[in-house]
Amino acid sequence: MKNKINYLAILTFYIIAIVLRYLTNKTALLNSLPDNFLKVILKGIGPAAGALIVFTVFKIKPVLSLKGNYKTLLAPFLLYWAVPILLISAVAWFINGSIPVIAVSAVLVYGLLEEIGWRGFLQQELKSLPGFLNILIVAILWFIWHLNVDLTGTNLLFFGILLLGSWGIGKVADSTNSLLAVSAFHSLNNFFPAINNRNLTIIIILLSFWIIALIIRKKQQTKARIHTRQ
Length: 230
Description:
Blueprint: H1 7-25, H2 36-43, H3 45-57, H4 74-96, H5 101-125, H6 131-145, H7 153-176, H8 179-187, H9 197-229
Helix pairs in contact: 1-3, 2-5, 3-5, 4-5, 4-8, 4-9, 5-8, 6-7, 7-8
Pfam families: Rce1-like
Keywords: Hydrolase, Membrane, Metalloprotease, Protease, Transmembrane, Transmembrane helix
InterPro entries: Rce1/LyrA-like_dom (IPR003675)
């Protein structure tokens, strides 16, 4: 367990994340870019850039990776990225006659860039804190990073979602160590700009599929540990 928190690394990470968030979301910096896919990605690049810089400058070894504790990279990719891309694209094709592979992929990449920072760095750097305090700090910093901190009912609800997300995605991070997994759970809130019965059904299907996969994996890991001890 990590004992010492590098507060300077956290401050450096957060300043970079906030500055890039402001530049990419509150200024005209990206207006000249013709590629909407690239625009979406760059709007979430702050946490990833901040984390990668502090990993390098402060010589912090990342705990999470794309593969995580799966045997191959293909396993988490198929489970957490291929499934939502195929499901959402199939539903869109059936309803609208379109296949939004690029749009869904952009959401997943955006979520990945955020998660490199929030779970990949910040949650791990605060591991020595009590669990709820870790979750609360991550949620507060994550909320402020969105640069929309007016205390309206909508924003308070949004903070509650981030608090719940920090707990749930944190559990996924601890279980899989996979950035692909945590970015997929993160993206559940971003796949659809509006919630209706169809979109909610897709979210429930994806969430149920992933939770069942995690439960089965945990049971397999437990059996493997028991077998190893014997």
